[in-house]
Specification:
With 224 residues, the chain is of the alpha/beta class. It has a single domain, classed as P-loop containing nucleotide triphosphate hydrolases (Rossmann fold, 3-Layer(aba) Sandwich), CATH 3.40.50.300. The protein has 7 helices and 10 strands. The strands form 2 sheets. It has a 6-stranded mixed sheet with strand order 6-7-8-3-9-10. A 4-stranded antiparallel sheet has the order 2-1-4-5, covered by helices on one side. A hairpin with a 2-residue loop joins strand 9 and strand 10. Helix 3 crosses helix 4, helix 3 packs parallel to helix 5 and helix 5 runs parallel beside helix 6. It is globular, with a radius of gyration of 17 Å. The protein binds adenosine-5'-diphosphate and magnesium ion. Magnesium ion (MG) binds next to helix 1.
C-alpha cells in the first residue's frame, strides 16, 4: 500500500493489574488505505478500544509503530500530536460525548472553528450534515433533549465535520437498539463514503462489520 492513512506495525500494549501483566495487543500490523472503511471485529475485551486509543494518539504506553497520514507518531511532541489529531482524525464513541450546554448545531460547528472555518460556513456545513442525518428539526436541541439515536447522529456529524482523512469509531452504535443501530450505521457509512474519508470501526457485531469494505479480526492481541 503506497500511502496508507494509518499504518501500524508491531503495535503492543500491556497493562499491569494486581501484579499481573495482561498483554492486550501483541504485535498488531495493519494498514488502512485512503477512503477505505475497515471493520475491527472482536469480542468484548479483545482490545478494540485499546487499539483505537493508540491510533487516536490520546494515550501513551504503546510500543511499535503508529503512522498517521505518513507521520510517525513517536517522533512527535504532544503539541504536534494534537495538531495531527485535529487536522486528520474524527472520533465517534459508543457514548456520544457531546457538550451538554451546546445545541446539536453548535456541537457540530465547534470543531470547525478550531480549524479557523468561518462561523457562517461552519454553520452551513453543520446544517447540511445534520439534515443528511434526518435531524433538520433538532438543530437547536441540547443533547439531553435528543433520543439515543439522535445523539449518536449528532456525534457522527461532529466527527465528519472537518472531513477528516480517518474516522475512528468505537462501537458507534453499540448503545442503540438493533433497528436504530442498523440505520445509524448505514447513514454513517454513506456519509463517510460520500466524502471519501477512511474509517476504522470497532464492533463485535458480524452483521454490521460485513457492511464495511474490509473486516479485520482481533484475536489474542493480533490481527488475523
Ligand atoms: N487502563 C486499563 N488498565 C487495565 N486494563 C485495561 C485497561 N484498558 C483496557 N484494559 C484491559 O484490556 C483488555 C482489552 O480491553 P479493551 O481494549 O477495552 O477491549 P474491547 O474494546 O475489545 O472490549 C481488557 O481485558 C481490559 O480489561
Ligand atoms: Mg471497547
Amino acid at each position: 500500500m503506497s500511502n496508507p492513512v494509518v499504518r501500524l506495525a508491531g503495535l503492543a500494549r500491556s497493562f499491569e493489574q494486581g501484579g499481573v501483566t495482561i498483554e492486550v495487543l501483541r504485535g498488531v500490523d495493519l494498514e488502512v488505505a485512503p477512503g477505505e472503511i475497515v471493520a475491527l471485529l472482536g469480542p468484548s475485551g479483545s482490545g478494540k478500544s485499546t487499539m483505537l486509543q493508540a491510533v487516536g494518539l490520546l494515550e501513551g504506553g504503546f510500543s511499535g509503530t503508529i503512522e498517521i497520514a505518513g507521520q510517525d507518531a513517536s517522533s512527535l511532541g504532544s503539541a504536534e500530536r494534537t495538531t495531527l489529531r485535529r487536522d486528520h482524525l474524527g472520533f465517534v464513541y459508543q457514548f456520544h460525548h457531546l457538550l451538554p450546554d451546546f445545541t446539536a448545531l453548535e456541537n457540530v460547528v465547534l470543531p470547525q472553528l478550531l480549524l479557523d472555518v468561518k462561523r457562517a460556513d461552519a454553520e452551513e456545513r453543520a446544517r447540511q450534515l445534520l439534515e443528511a442525518l434526518g435531524l433538520s428539526h433538532r438543530l437547536s436541541h441540547r443533547p439531553s433533549k435528543l433520543s439515543g439515536g439522535e445523539q449518536q447522529r449528532v456525534a457522527v456529524a461532529r466527527a465528519l465535520a472537518n472531513k477528516p482523512q480517518l474516522v475512528l469509531a468505537d462501537e458507534p452504535t453499540g448503545n442503540l437498539d438493533e433497528k436504530t443501530s442498523e440505520r445509524v450505521l448505514g447513514e454513517f457509512l454513506e456519509l463517510v463514503r460520500g466524502q471519501g474519508s477512511a474509517a476504522l470501526v470497532a464492533t463485535h457485531n458480524e452483521r454490521l462489520a460485513a457492511r464495511m469494505d474490509r473486516v479485520v479480526r482481533l484475536h489474542e492481541g493480533r490481527i488475523e
